[in-house]
Amino acid sequence: MTPCPKVEISLHTILCIRQIYPPTTFTRRRAHGVPVYQSRHPTVRSYISQVIASVGKEINEGRLKRMTVVIKSVLTGLPVERMIFDIGYLSGLDGRKDIGLTGAPNADELGLMLRGFLIKLSSLDGQLLDNNEECTFAIIIETNDDLAPSSNTTEDTGPWVPALVKDTLRPSQKEDAECPEKHEPLLSVKAIETGVIDVCLSSPT
Q: Which Gene3D superfamilies match (predicted)?
């Protein structure tokens, strides 16, 4: 089971609860019995759908290591917080998808895990400081091989471009003053371990 639908729901919900766009631009939905949010703006929905499609290609190939939602101040352009999705894979499958795994959750158990994940995500807003300034966001991915995403082609720029140094967790060069050498302590929000593809969401405290 691909984690992409859950990640898509999470992106919409993060943009709402962290006040990136006005609450009136979101509609309430339910996923796994949990209230979540979905943007009603066609441009935002289209952008998120494109991101998920590109991310899905990297996950299917076992290349995605991390996806980070960077929330930035419009005034300064600097990050104010990050939502980090760490991805882990079961090695040795060689592209085979329909394999029974001892101890892997069944459909009902997986549904409960997804429900718990969304409950924790929805409650995250109460654990973080309010964003009292106008913010925007960027989505950054890291691949396991540190190469360009496979969804990029040599004929065009592709959907992904190199991330700004100040948006990343690690500096490319220590002398670069725009990027701090250490990131904030992380709050582990929730992890889902399916036995094949594991997802862990963290946020700076």
A: HORMA domain
pLDDT mean by block of 10 residues, the chain; 205 residues: 79 93 95 93 95 88 87 91 80 51 64 84 81 90 76 58 74 46 53 57 63
The CA-to-CA distance between both ends of the chain, in Å, stands at 30
d(CA 55, CA 53): 6
Q: How many CB atoms lie within 10 A of CB 93?
A: 12
CATH match for 4-204 among 3.30.1300.10, 3.30.900.10, 2.60.120.260, 3.30.1490.270: 3.30.900.10
Q: Cite the beta strand spans of the chain per DSSP E.
A: 26-31, 34-39, 64-73, 79-89, 135-143, 186-193, 197-204
